[in-house]
Amino acid sequence: MMRTLFHRPAAWCVLCLLVLGSLLTACQKNDTALDTTDYSARDESLIKDYIKDNNLTGFQRDTLGLYIAVTQPGNGVKITKGQQVSALYTGMTLDNRVFDSTGSRNNQPFTFGIGLNQVIPGWDLGFAKLTKGAKATLLIPSGLGYGPYAVGSIPPNSVLRFDVEVTDVK
Q1: Which is a Pfam family this sequence falls into (predicted)?
Q2: What is the pLDDT of residues 66-107, one digit of tens each?
Q3: What is the model's pLDDT at position 36?
Q4: Domain for residue 121, yes or no?
Q5: Which residues are part of the catalytic machinery?
Q6: 133-144 CB burial, b ≥16 within 10 A, e <16
Q7: pTM confidence score
Q8: What is the CATH number of the domain that holds 112?
Q9: Taking all residues of the chain, what is their mean pLDDT, rounded to a whole number?
Q10: How far apart are CA 72 and CA 7, in angstroms?
Q11: How would you classify residue 91: left for phi > 0, otherwise alpha for psi between -120 and 50, otherwise beta?
């Protein structure tokens, strides 16, 4: 008698688990559809109002809507793609609620590769305009931040503020 794969008890168990898993996945209801609204005009207005309401100065807007104000120039050449950047930072929403800070982790710098999609796009763009030793404030529209995703205490489609300091570049 010829034995096939399905004459083995272990094979039946695996097949049943695969079918059951597929059925459960197909039956799950997804109530949280992503909001695909373009918030660029709203974000632009929020950022301009935030700058005005907080009497902030020195901001330059790039073509993608990132606002950056260098509060202390660094030294050396601008950071380029692929370099390792170490930075101190405080991240907050526009209601000044801090959601993350290296200060809460003994001021240990955060290190990342610039332009390698290791951080949000607003960081890649903003840090590429800085040099070692620079301090700056980045106002990042939601599309260059976490977009439609809620991350920790950050609501979806949030404009973000980061106060940053470049401590090292390699």
Answers
A1: FKBP_C
A2: 999 999 999 978 899 999 999 999 999 999 999 999 999 999
A3: 86
A4: yes
A5: 89, 99-100, 120, 146, 162
A6: ebbbbbbbbbbb
A7: 0.81
A8: 3.10.50.40
A9: 86
A10: 73
A11: beta
